[in-house]
Fold each of these.
Amino acid sequence: MSFDTDLTSDVSDELFWDPKVDNTAVAVSADNGKITLRGTVGSLREKREAQKAAQRVFGVISVDNKLQVKLMNDDKRADAELRGDVLQALMLDSLVPKTVDVKVEDAFVTLTGTANWQYQRDEADFVASNIVGTLDVFDEIEIEHPTPDRGDVKESIKKAFKRNAALDAEDLHVSTDNGTVTVKGTVGSWAEHDEAIDAAWAAPGVTKVRDDLTVAY
């Protein structure tokens, strides 16, 4: 059997193994290690969990998530009601700043406003994606804080890479430009990829991270 055939089988098995994903309506295909997911799922959270499951599989280089969220009739919500529930959930989460606002149109949620850190944007996105009735979340929250010296940002990220036991810092390269950080290099898994990107976002003054990493096995 070919590599892609084996990989398709492994991803399908991982989706079946994950209790958060109903794999019965998910089709998996592979092309030189690039996975495509097609089909329907019952929630945005399930769509995202399916992508995470595929990325966990050894040999997967990238995942093109084309799954469609199809809500059951009982899960469909009026936009005003959905916005109220998202706002309430954000307000109750201590990691989300009060400067974050929400717009909803046809069950598509857009997050607006400002935050000081990327983890706050990630948390708001995660909270909104868990609300029943949400078809998708668009994160337009802007990061606002003073931009430190570019050399300080670069060195702090490189030190963070070296401290992290999950990363091989020698294979990672960082450049900075007015708050934008570019991370290049090769990592051995998606878990390592995510560790590197999270470390870059954690540096003070970073407003954007360009992901030029390659996952290679």
Amino acid sequence: MPMIVSVPKETFPGEQRVALVPELVPKLTKASLEVIVQCGAGESAELLDAEYEGKGARLEEEVFGKADILRKVQPPIDEIGRMNEDSFLISFLQPYTNTTAIKALAARRITAFSMEFMPRITRAQSMDALSAMSTVAGYKAVLIAASRLPKFFPLLMTAAGTVTPARVFVIGAGVAGLQAIGTAKRLGAVVEAYDTRPAVKEQVESLGAKFAEMGLAAKDAEDKSGYAKAQSEEFYQKQQEMMFKYVAAADVVIPTALVPGQRAPILITEEMVRGMRPGSVIVDLAAEQGGNCALTEPGRDIVKHGVIIIGPMNLPSTVPFQGSEMYARTVTSYLVHLVKDGRPHLDLDDELTRGPLVTHRGEIVHEVVKARL
């Protein structure tokens, strides 16, 4: 009998994505897997049940108890008790903070892979779910800012006179930051950007933005997996001082600095917000980890000192069609990597297999997660 890959409807509040899109069903069946999709799983992303059926998936009202391999977007909480023991799970797991679920997965002997831990190596580029979702977040952040700013983004020559372009300052030139830069430039804004890594200057300038030179190159700005590393308090204080003039001159500020497993560093102080023009906008892409702005309230839009401060949560879910499509591609690529002849084959000597593995055979096997628990 072929192993069954199940895709449930997401139940996390506000989550509109789905972990599989119809176009990828044939790729799984070609890998000798059977696909079951819960009825209505894709409706929030405008993906209808008939489309899944047309590509070879089977529709069921209940999918957890039938899954050998479960694909999700948000981590399971209440559903863990409905999952089969010794089954497989591929999902975002929020592994640094979601301790209850991680322990429950281990107790149920579920082999769980966290897409947050995908190593940033060449072989894993097509499986990098965080980068895919950061692309969505960077794009949407600019649209939110443009919709709230009481100004046009582009330079306009009109019969009523010349309209000057908006100034956008992006902090952090990772995937989300670069996407924000590109989107803001396409809308016609004047864009400046800063990153602790001078090496990204060329990427920033290739998108038409100006790189903010502050003379603050961080040592060891990345860990061996390619993710940002926290810096000293002294470094962040100097950074705030150097950044003040750029923030004050901007109409829109989009900070994107995240450090895995830690509170986001404070880059924009209340004093800096006070120095901005009334009506300016901050869209804090680090809100889910506390925010890069000292005044950010995660999940809320507030006004402080005349500045609109937006702390969006789960931005990729607000673009559910492409968000689902991009996420599903990364998970499918990873699942195909794990499966041979229709069965999971775990080579724990392979960094690509071992890196995202959190629980296996009743134990928490990821060293960082184990240490935190």
Amino acid sequence: MTGSMDQNGAVQPIGGVNEKIEGFFDLCRLRGLDGSQGVLIPARNRRNLVLKDEVVQRSRGDLPHLEIDRVEEGSRR
């Protein structure tokens, strides 16, 4: 887990979002990507996503990424 929220529960953007997702993907692939893994990212990082094609393809199935604006959204996913 990485990142922070403000005092009102708004999720703050993170640095290195692509590297963090791709690193997690590589680890999951080595340990066995089984569809139970996933990634929550700050919605404000959406415009920063430039992921490898393989990660993009897997994000539609085995490794979904979900974008959240508020911390409460993360507990519902």
Amino acid sequence: MQHTLAADDGLIRKLWIAEVDIYRDHLLRLDRDSRHSRFGGAVSDEFIREYVGSTYQLNVVMHGFFVDGTLRGAAELRPLGPAFAREAEAAFSIETPWQSHGVGSALLDRTLLAARNRGIRILHMACLANNRRMQELARKFAAELSFDFGSVVGEVAAPRPTPLSVLREMVADGHGFATAVLDVQSRLLKPT
């Protein structure tokens, strides 16, 4: 019997600044079509290396989808404008075997929570007009889509933060951090 991949087969947690290499390696593993969808066109390995170097700014919040300790999907939340911006951009990258299995939905859910808790009211998700997966993901979360010059922009209005939403993010971050520490420890203890 063949096992079907699902978001439940992995762990979603925040990516930390020390994990820049993990994020770079994930983006470099994307196949041509996935890379094209993520960046809106063909990009080189060098472009990805430079992009990742600029990604880890203080205001960018990143979540990753890990399977057996390897990053297989990622979501970026980039505020648009100065500190305490009310709008942000969300970008997603998921390696092919994990596409269409709920990973994007799980990452968007976590990204919406982070946006909400940072007072972000509008979340922009830009994608190419032929990126049906991203359009379906935006529709699933009640985004209004508008078509502009061959691309699609989804806007999701995030509700205001509440003590419960802040606590939910803190618990998820604590669980993710503990799991990451245990994962590193188990890899260090494996016999070589």
